[in-house]
């Protein structure tokens, strides 16, 4: 029996709490005796979430059970942390077998000194602050979740569900995690090193119409000739001018943008279709399965076939 102890405080983000709790509770329903979920506040009193919901905890700090997994959600309440909460985390964090933060909950762990020397992520909106205020913490703003030993941090909101599913898979196996995911109508889980944003959301939208049209063309035609020369011709600019203007206006080189679009398209085809790897590599502009394999290993740390095995939902019978 693993006790999952969820810390609550005023202005906590309700989905940061309920998302992971639903995952662990679903795993407990499928495999009784696996998880015991408890919530805790400083004084045992109820708290109000940032969306106005009222949550009633099971425990106060004084009578909280020992945690196997100590989970710290995010929300507006993390931006002005309560010193008593930070002190309690500083004391209890090292005692937990697994320390987890969702969204800006990483700010509370950092204030407690529990992230020093560790690689972490958080919601994109607080990563700069986390890095600035805590220079001893290695902040990676891109992934949806990061594992570093017994520490696990996530980007927040729905990525807390992805991280919780990964932890369930680690604890009791892929079949249970898949059953929970299917019940929640989500993929088994997105890989932790998947970017928080798609290429289209990461890159800025170009100001000039020809460049915006090129961005859209790339998204709709990942298998086309997307060389700088070809894209520059479509924008009616010289290759040199196009490359410079594209990076200035989008914050990303044309090659980097193309790489991300192709990878995202290949991932979707692997997840959503039964097409073969060779067919997908051609459709996404890689040309050969080996070129696509290199792109997957470089960015996601896994080959396309393994990615499909792990992340494509099984058919419902």
UniProtKB/TrEMBL annotation:
Pfam family, one: DJ-1_PfpI
InterPro entries per the UniProt record, alphabetical: Class_I_gatase-like (IPR029062), DJ-1/PfpI (IPR002818), Homeodomain-like_sf (IPR009057), HTH_AraC (IPR018060), INH-QAR (IPR052158)
The UniProt record lists the keyword Transcription: yes
Top-rank lineage group of the source organism: Bacteria
SUPFAM superfamilies noted in UniProt: Class I glutamine amidotransferase-like, Homeodomain-like
Gene3D superfamilies registered for this protein in UniProt: 3.40.50.880, Homeodomain-like
Keywords annotated in UniProt: Transcription, Transcription regulation
Keyword Transcription regulation in record: yes
HTH araC/xylS-type domain boundaries: 212-310
Protein name: GlxA family transcriptional regulator
């Amino acid at each position: 029996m693993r006790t999952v102890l969820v810390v609550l405080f005023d202005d906590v983000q309700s989905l940061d709490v309920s998302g992971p709790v639903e995952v662990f509770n679903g795993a407990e329903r499928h495999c009784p005796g696996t998880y015991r979920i408890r919530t805790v506040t400083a004084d045992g009193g109820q708290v109000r979430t940032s969306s106005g919901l009222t949550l009633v905890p099971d425990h106060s700090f004084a009578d909280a059970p020992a945690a196997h997994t100590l989970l710290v959600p995010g929300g507006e309440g993390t931006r002005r942390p309560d010193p008593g909460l930070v002190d309690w985390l500083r004391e209890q964090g090292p005692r937990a077998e697994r320390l987890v933060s969702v969204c800006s909950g990483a700010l509370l762990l950092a204030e407690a000194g529990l992230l020093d020397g560790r690689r972490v992520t958080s919601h994109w909106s607080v990563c700069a602050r986390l890095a600035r205020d805590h220079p001893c913490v290695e902040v990676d703003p891109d992934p949806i979740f990061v594992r570093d030993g017994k520490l696990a941090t996530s980007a927040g909101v729905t990525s807390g569900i992805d991280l919780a599913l990964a932890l369930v898979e680690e604890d009791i196996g892929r079949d249970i995690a898949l059953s929970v995911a299917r019940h929640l109508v989500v993929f088994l889980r997105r890989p932790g090193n998947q970017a928080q944003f798609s290429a289209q959301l990461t890159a800025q939208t170009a100001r000039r119409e020809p460049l915006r049209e090129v961005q859209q063309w790339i998204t709709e035609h990942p298998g086309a000739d997307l060389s700088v020369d070809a894209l520059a011709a479509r924008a009616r600019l010289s290759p040199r001018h196009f490359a410079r203007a594209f990076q200035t206006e989008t914050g990303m080189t044309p090659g980097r943008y193309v790489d991300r679009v192709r990878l995202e398209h290949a991932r979707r085809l692997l997840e959503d279709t039964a097409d073969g790897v060779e067919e997908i590599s051609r459709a996404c502009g890689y040309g050969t399965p080996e070129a696509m394999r290199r792109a997957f290993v470089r960015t996601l740390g896994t080959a396309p076939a393994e990615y499909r095995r792990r992340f494509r939902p099984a058919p419902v019978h």
